[in-house]
Specification:
Aspartate Aminotransferase, domain 1, alpha+beta, 6-stranded antiparallel β-sheet, 154 residues
């Protein structure tokens, strides 16, 4: 299993991280490492591609096509938070809300939002990331079955 945490950041992606305020850049790099670490724990996910989508660091599963795109960003319009974004047309965030409404703040159907000093519940966030990284393999399962599958691998 490949360890992605050591994966070098592409210059164009690094430039976006460098454009963020330093305190948020550090937090977003933690999210990046959680995404890559989670991907390395799920053998069926395969290769992870780090790229830019909508000008934001994004993570895809190009070879296995097992997952839905995950993006991370800080936005000028919401200066006091940073977020991890999931495809809004998928039912990922609603499933996450149903399970973890007491753990996270959600931005509608598309994100989990964090304030600068929030403690990140890493185990639960890794499970949400795993749900997205395996989305195309589990989207037809009932929510309970999807989460059971995730719990077995994370």
């Amino acid at each position: 299993m490949k360890k992605y945490v050591e994966m070098e950041i592409k210059p164009e992606v690094a430039a976006v991280f460098d454009s963020y305020p330093v305190k948020f850049k550090r937090k977003l790099l933690i999210l990046r490492n959680l995404i890559l670490d989670t991907a390395s724990e799920i053998e069926s996910v395969g290769e992870i591609e780090e790229t830019l989508k909508w000008g934001e660091p994004s993570y895809l599963t190009p070879k296995s096509k097992s997952g839905s795109t995950i993006r991370i960003a800080w936005k000028e319009a919401k200066k006091d938070q940073y977020s991890i974004f999931f495809k809004c047309t998928a039912d990922l965030v609603p499933a996450m809300k149903e399970r973890y409404s007491d753990k996270f703040i959600f931005g509608g159907k598309r994100s989990i939002d964090f304030k600068l000093n929030d403690k990140i519940p890493k185990k639960e966030l890794k499970q949400c990331i795993a749900l997205a990284l395996t989305y195309h393999r589990n989207k037809k399962l009932e929510p309970t079955a999807r989460w059971k599958m995730i719990e077995k691998i994370i």
